[in-house]
Specification:
Structural class: alpha/beta
Mean pLDDT: 95
Number of helices: 19
Shape: globular
Distance between the termini: 71 Å
Oligomer: single chain
Number of strands: 22
Low-confidence stretches: 659-668
Strand content: 15-25%
Length: 668
């Protein structure tokens, strides 16, 4: 048995994983990263539009701060998030953006003076302050009160990942590439590392560590069409699930992005709409104002996706060989803007559609995009059930997104969450010893080896590829944007059959090294369990919240369902997970449940909401008018952070007088 020891083990070399590794290495800890692919090819590179942080440099961001960002995030989550975590995140986002600038991220910057933008289909001239010249710029994104999304044209994820990986290289952090973790080494109380397989040689290795951080991204590829990279198959979540101890949180919370191109499902950034792009139907009609008169195309993602689907159902979609779609029109932005700020979108349109987006409309429709659910952690990023197991980024349910994520908050979560949780991981490593139990590692090694032996030498006949295709079809057909009881029950029943069939998998190729069929067979059983946690959670949650939209239960039900779904799989032979629920305490919320601002307000009110609102009013009255926003916030909901991240953020607006309406300089 090959054993490799380290202090901080990170599984996944995207932005979240690398940021945790950097935090560990900064403390002098032995740090090691495992990755399916070279780090710079991680899915983080695909993020286009930007990263939210309340810098308040641009004129349309003036007045922004942590309070506004926090409120946008909570409302965006449809009150499903952990408000302590949302506060931690909003406070640290400006620090992360500025840190990234020092690491070489070429953020787009403010140019003083007039600039023309498109707002609500109208040309508007903004006048940027001289004092803002050269500071980090921001664009508009859905569900936000201020322009807050910092960007590098539309290649933000690419820029961030390259800078982050270069930082890791400069710190001599090793990344073991083409390595796939297949099991967590644990004793039921503490995680001790992973059993991993080399995708080239087939060799199994035991990586033993003080802390193990799962940063493997989302589970979008359990769906037939997804904007996710093909490596985003939910294996990190499955590793935790298969311990039988660790829980997954809110797995039914799956986001569909409004504007993926048809038919391949490649993303066109929300920056297209943030910069002024419009959605049109088959008649060329701009329909979003009919549904959302205030935010229109820049309503929250779950809302826009549902409105688009509703409009297609009314027969307003454009017929195509791949099903009906709608149009994304960015022609009004002009060629110069597209070639400067939307270059990746232009290349995608040219290479995959054969069109010029400066002249042609882009065929789009909602497509699976993001996983709000993941490995349930506490605010420090650690699993409550398995000591030493951490998770960060899209792999985790930390839980700052609740049931819907705002655009720009995921890229921010990777580096902000990595920054915060990385410090807690380092603390854990410094305060705990490395426990090396070779017998325990050998037991898990033998389990994985036996699984591989059975696939290669057994008499199974089922095809991993066929089972995966069927699973993806089921999820797309029955667990999509709109859900209902009969279809969800059908999904659960059919997925159970597939899971049972997966126990009889067979291989045509019997190689133990560099064998894609073996890789697929090892993954598909795990993916089916992840898919079942999504389908079972969705079937059980009889309400609509955020991206979880039940046609048979259209109300958000705070009275009965203001909670977080927890899924575990204690019986390895079972065909479905065990579901439990973790209540969200209204009496501890800084922002009690309320109206999101979309459609009709049909929520079933929680009995504590009115009490908490009165309590908040009393606390603020007691503080008096002289209290500043920091004092008010601490009185309502104090939150903890590592000491180095606690100082308040500084903004340009702190040194400038609050601009009047005229000073904003809008001219049509």
């Amino acid at each position: 048995m090959k054993l490799i020891y380290t202090d901080s083990l990170v599984v996944g070399a995207g932005l979240a994983g690398l940021r945790v590794a950097i935090a560990s290495k900064e403390r002098g800890l032995d740090t090691l990263v495992l990755s399916l692919i070279p780090a710079k090819r991680s899915h983080s590179a695909a993020a286009q539009g930007g990263m939210q942080a309340s810098l308040g440099n641009a004129v349309k961001g003036m007045g922004d701060d942590e309070d506004v960002h926090f409120q946008d995030t909570v409302k965006g989550s449809d009150w499903g998030c952990d408000q302590d975590v949302a506060r931690m995140f909003a406070h640290c986002a400006p620090k992360a953006v500025r840190e990234l600038a020092t690491w070489g991220v070429p953020w787009s910057r403010v140019s003083a003076g007039p600039r023309d933008v498109i707002v609500n289909a109208q040309k508007v001239t903004l006048h940027e302050a001289q004092e803002a010249h050269g500071l980090i710029n921001a664009r508009d994104f859905g569900g936000t009160k201020k322009w807050r999304t910092c960007y590098t044209a539309d290649g933000t994820g690419h820029s961030l990942l390259y800078a982050m990986d270069n930082k890791a290289i400069s710190m001599d952090i090793p990344v073991h590439e083409r390595i796939e973790a297949l099991a967590l080494i644990h004793d039921g109380k503490r995680c001790h590392g992973v059993i991993a397989r080399c995708l080239i040689t087939g060799e199994l290795r035991a990586y033993v560590a003080k802390s193990t951080t799962i940063a493997t991204g989302g589970y979008g590829r359990i769906y037939e069409v997804s904007t996710n990279a093909i490596i985003c198959e939910g294996i990190g979540q499955a590793l935790a699930l298969e311990t039988g101890v660790a829980t997954l949180g809110n797995m039914e919370a799956v986001q569909f992005h409004p504007t993926a191109i048809v038919p391949v499902g490649i993303l066109t950034t929300e920056g297209c709409r943030g910069d002024g792009g419009l959605l049109r139907d088959k008649d060329g009609y701009r329909f979003m104002p009919d549904y959302e008169s205030d935010k229109k195309e820049l309503a929250s993602r779950d809302v826009v996706s549902r409105r688009m689907t509703e409009h297609i159902r009314k027969g307003k979609g454009v017929d195509s060989p791949y099903g009906p779609h709608l149009w994304l029109d960015i022609t009004l932005l002009g060629r110069k803007h597209i070639e400067t700020n939307l270059r990746e979108v232009q290349e995608i349109c040219e290479n995959f559609l054969g069109i010029d987006p400066a002249k042609d409309w882009i065929p789009v429709r909602p497509t699976q995009h993001y996983s709000m659910g993941g490995i349930r952690t506490n605010a420090t990023g650690e699993s409550p059930q398995l000591k030493g197991l951490f998770s960060v980024g899209e792999a985790a349910c930390w839980d700052m997104h609740g049931f819907n994520r705002l655009g720009g908050n995921s890229l921010a979560e990777t580096v902000v969450g990595g920054m915060i949780i990385g410090k807690y991981v380092a603390d854990f490593c410094e305060n705990n010893s490395l426990e090396i139990d070779t017998q325990l590692a050998e037991r898990f090694m033998q389990q994985v080896q036996s699984e591989i032996d059975l696939l290669i030498e057994g008499d199974g006949h089922e095809s991993a590829f066929a089972l995966k295709r069927e699973m993806q079809r089921i999820m797309m057909d029955y667990v999509g944007i709109f859900r209902n009881g009969p279809e969800l029950d059908k999904a659960v029943a059919e997925l159970k059959v597939l899971l049972e069939r997966s126990r009889k998998l067979g291989l045509k190729c019997k190689k133990r090294h560099a064998n894609p069929e073996l890789v697929e067979a090892l993954r598909v059983k795990r993916m089916l369990k992840v898919a079942l946690t999504v389908a079972c959670g969705a079937a059980a949650r009889t309400e609509s919240r955020g991206a979880h939209a039940r046609e048979d239960f259209p109300q958000r039900n705070d009275r009965d369902w203001l909670n977080r779904t927890l899924a575990s799989w204690p019986d390895a032979d079972a065909l479905e997970p065990v579901l439990n629920y973790e209540a969200l305490d209204v009496m501890k919320m800084e922002l009690p449940p309320g109206y999101r601002g979309y459609g009709i307000n049909n929520a079933i009110v929680h009995p504590d909401t009115e009490k908490r609102e009165q309590q908040i009013a009393n606390i603020l009255a007691e503080l008096g008018e002289d209290a500043d926003r920091y004092q008010r916030q601490r009185a309502l909901m104090p939150f903890e952070l590592p000491e180095s991240l606690q100082p308040n953020n500084e903004r340009l607006s702190d040194t400038l007088k609050s601009p009047s309406a005229n000073a904003l300089g809008e001219k049509s």
